[in-house]
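Wed. Picked up where I left off yesterday with Helix-turn-helix transcriptional regulator. The coffee machine is broken again, so keeping this brief.
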Amino acid sequence: MNQKDIGQFIYKCRKEKGLTQAQLAETLNVSDKSISRWENGKTMPDLSLYEPLCNALDIQISELLYGKKMNEKEKLIQGDQSAMEIFKTKSELLTFGILTELLILVGIIITITLTKLFAKTIFQTILIMVCGGFVWGFGIILRIKIKKAISFLEKDLL
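Structure written out below (tokens, as returned):
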């Protein structure tokens, strides 16, 4: 995915549709400066704009991401590759999910065990519990985000 190539492709498709930057910007509810930055390869559209942008330019998302028009065979090949990447990503997320569960466990161990072993004062008890709670909470937040990401990937595959 080359940002400059994608920008040139957006420019080319916009011109083919006979749209000005201002017209495309109005359709997408963004500024014409945003369109200019995309076309110059300085920035990329926000992910939430990919589908409306593709609809406005009458292209597919795979064509946008590869910065070129594709024939049906190329689209099929890219679709297969994308599906394999999604499966690979899901597998990596599941592995990472296991690691976050270990992080949660470590946080609980820090909170309970280290407090009993090392805390001599109330301040030390509170400090160890806060540290353990932070590790435990961070693990839970990561786990929730991973579950959402996996759910999003599964929804895309259906």
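Quick read: The chain has two domains: 3-66, 82-157.
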